[in-house]
Amino acid sequence: MTRRILTLPRLTAVVAGVLLVSATISLAADKPVARKPATHVAKRQVLVVPDVRGQVFVFASGNLEDGGFGWKVRGSVHGFPANVVASQQPKPGTRVIDNGAPTITLRLSPGNAPQLGQPQDRSPYGASLIRRATRHTHSR
Amino acid sequence: MVGARISARLGREEGQTLIEMITTMAMLSFVMAAVAALFVSGLHAQTDMNQRFQAQQNARLALTSMRSDIRNSCVAPQVYSTPTSSTPLASGVYGAKVVLASACSAGVATSNVTWCADSASGTAPFGLYRQTGTTCAYSTGVKKADQLKANAVFALSTTSGQRPMLAVSFPVDANLSTTNGTYTLSDTVMARNSAATP
Questions:
Q1: What is the complex's ipTM, to 2 decimals?
Q2: Which of B65, B110, B193 lies nearest to residue A112, judging by beta carbons?
Q3: Tens digits of per-residue pLDDT, A101-117?
Q4: Per-window interface: A 35-94 vs B, CB < 8 A
Q5: A with B: how many residue pairs have Cβ under 8 Å apart?
């Protein structure tokens, strides 16, 4: 009887230990490794606005996206793939600060294909405002 | 009677011998090793599956983007055998670079967009790149997909009186060391914005 009484706290301690270890492992596996915040401040980079005038809209939007820009369509002709870029703002060659995805505003003229379906008048991601670069900003 | 025998057994003071202990530990270590091996192989399988899924998903997204470009090319696409080649391939021959026309004037391309399958080593795995202009390379293009097993992935198909078509075939394999994991994404897209082949 005495032995059984002595065994009980030992058993409880072992079970508690196993539970503690398994809980620790589970928590550690679940938590992502904390990343240290970046301590350096990145230099402002400059993007040069490409010339997409005259290009078919689907190519122009793709080229702007690949170049790190956002875009939006203004005017009566909407963002259907086969439409053609009539004008852009800012003008080609303008140096702008890379503050995310500087927005290029496009005006289109109708292309060869019928204007069917839903037009896409904005880039699929959030675009940022245009900020012109000074001469001292680093070019990319 | 039975109760008394159980209480007598519970009341014994004998422990286990060293031989028993070592035998138990050896058996336990065998079982634990098997469980650990199973766990590790499961982790590897999951990682492999994630990499394959990611590579296939990138290829699908790239093909979606490429379809729009091909359909809206205002001149027939031109396929080249390598990213540096300048001689267009004949209809039906697969190559690593395709040049599309993004702007045209009187039926002549005034600006272009090029897609190519290229890699730094010149061997698989190849990446799929998009670049403005008539040149394209892994170092200058924008990467749209990767883990392609081959670089000859584009072929032009022309028939007199019909608009040109571009056949695309992306053999995606996230793990080139295995032989049975290739996922081939294929499509044939008509260049609807270009003139019919004479």
A1: 0.77
A2: B193
A3: 999 999 999 988 888 88
A4: 50, 54-60, 62-63, 66-67, 81-82, 84
A5: 54
* Cα dihedral: A51, A53, A56, A58 (round 10): 50
Q: Which helix (H) or strand (E) holds A61?
A: helix A57-66
User: B140-190: per-residue pLDDT in tens?
Assistant: 999 999 999 999 999 999 999 999 999 999 999 998 888 788 999 999 999
Strands in B29-153 per DSSP E: 78-80, 94-95, 97-105, 108-118, 126-132, 142-148
Nearest to B164 by CA among B91, B83, B88, B103: B91
Residues A6, A18: Cα–Cα separation, whole Å: 19
Question: What is the DSSP pairing of strand B108-118 with strand B183-190?
Answer: unpaired
Cα(B159)–Cα(B163) distance, rounded to whole angstroms? 7
Return d(Cα B65, Cα A66) in angstroms, integer. Answer: 12
Q: Which residue carries 């081939």 as its tokens?
A: B184
Contact B113 A113 (CB under 8 A): no
Look at phi and psi of residue A93 and say left if phi exceeds 0, alpha if psi is from -120 to 50, else beta. left
Amino acid at B136: C
